[in-house]
Amino acid sequence: MAKIDDIRDEYESLEADDRYRLLIDLGRALDPMPKPLKTDATLVRGCSASVWVYPTRQDDGRLHFLADSNAAITKGIIALVLLTVQDRTPGEIVGTDIEGALAPFDLGRQLSSNRTQGIPNMIALIRETAARFA
């Protein structure tokens, strides 16, 4: 998986249409999420598109999240969010400034409010999950 700083540098150098393509490519690069994991319990509330996030705990205690969406741009957004926390310990995730890591992407200005309205809920779900495992 790419590093958030590398993606940010690439994103900043792109025009709007290419930024959409980059987000779509990030979404495509996510690990596949098996259909049985896409349940009401893994659904992120408050998103205009359906978004599912499922945590898995690795042997060393780190969390690896599976995620999917029924919309390509939204899937790219959750992939971007996960770049900030993927394969970290629950304590590291709880202490991560996800919003700060995403701020340089200025998603609120780059994308419609329909596409970005669920980002705080995605972040909250990831934090709550990490807190439960911590």
Characterise the protein shown here.
This protein has about 130 residues and is mainly α. It has one domain (about 5-134): Alpha-Beta Complex (Sufe protein. Chain: A), CATH 3.90.1010. About 50% of the residues lie in helices and about 10% in strands. It is built from 8 helices and 2 strands, in the order ααββαααααα. It has a two-stranded antiparallel sheet. Strand 1 and strand 2 form a beta hairpin. Helix 2 (about 15-30) packs across helix 3 (about 70-85). The model has no long low-confidence stretch (mean pLDDT about 95).
Estimate what percentage of residues fall within beta strands: 5-15%
Shape category: globular
In CATH, what is the class?
Alpha Beta
Number of domains: 1
Q: What is CATH's topology name?
A: Sufe protein. Chain: A
User: How many strands in all?
Assistant: 2
Helical content band? 40-55%
Features:
134 residues, mainly alpha, Sufe protein. Chain: A, two-stranded antiparallel ribbon, 10% strand, globular
Quick recap of the structure?
The chain has 134 residues and is mostly helical. The protein has one domain: Sufe protein. Chain: A (Alpha-Beta Complex), CATH 3.90.1010.
SSE topology:
Elements: H1 4-12, H2 16-28, E1 51-57, E2 63-69, H3 72-83, H4 90-95, H5 98-102, H6 107-110, H7 113-116, H8 119-133
Antiparallel strand pairs: 1-2
Helix pairs in contact: 2-3
